[in-house]
Write a structure and sequence with these properties.
Blueprint: H1 20-32, H2 35-44, H3 52-55, H4 67-80, H5 82-99, H6 101-119, E1 125-127, E2 130-132, H7 134-151, H8 154-175, H9 181-187
Antiparallel strand pairs: 1-2
């Protein structure tokens, strides 16, 4: 059996740049880590963002006169401003994550430990005379994460995120009149 070919590592500071195969391998590794999902999410969901001048158009704000008006506004606005409402939810979630320092530490620990667990070789780690398997490391991360999450009150944070963003989104959807383009869609 022939030995594998030796490919020298290049240093980008001395003029060596990665080849197209190395670049595509790095891109596939990034997509397996979830960056492909983020790219798809950005293109599909955040591509429907409406301009702020349209989202905060004061001429279209009015108090609804009945339940049927509120229902029709919900149906129209929740679909039309879907990207904007998603951004409101993400901003509220980021705000609560950064104001709840214990939860921020827990989330950083989980993300960091999952990233590091991907880097552990399949045979595990050797610490002195002991060999620690990957499954043992995963169990340790899960136990530590559950303990940390218990003290960071994630349930109340999730309820606060849902309530705060839901109230803002539903209030905006209720008071924003339907656009004139909704009338043209109904005709066509």
């Amino acid at each position: 059996m022939a030995a594998p070919a030796y490919t020298p590592l290049t240093n980008p500071f001395t003029g060596g740049f990665p080849s197209s195969e190395e670049t595509s391998a790095a891109a596939s590794a990034a997509s397996s880590f979830g960056l492909g999902y983020l790219r798809k999410f950005r293109e599909e969901r955040l591509g429907s963002l409406r301009p702020l001048s349209e989202f905060f158009d004061r001429n279209r704000f009015s108090i609804p006169h009945g339940l049927s008006t509120v229902t029709s506004r919900f149906n129209y606005n929740l679909g039309y401003f879907q990207g904007n409402y998603l951004m409101i939810f993400l901003i509220v979630a980021a705000y609560t994550l950064f104001t709840n320092f214990a939860l921020l530490v827990c989330v950083a620990f989980v993300i960091g430990s999952m990233f590091l667990l991907q880097r552990v070789p399949p045979e595990g780690l050797a610490v002195g005379n002991f060999r620690i398997e990957v499954s043992q490391l995963r169990i340790a991360v899960i136990v530590i994460s559950v303990i940390l999450f218990f003290f960071s009150s994630p349930v109340s944070t999730v309820f606060w995120i849902v309530f705060a963003s839901g109230m803002v989104i539903l209030a905006h959807a209720a008071v924003m009149q339907e656009g004139v383009e909704g009338d043209f869609v109904a005709v066509v």
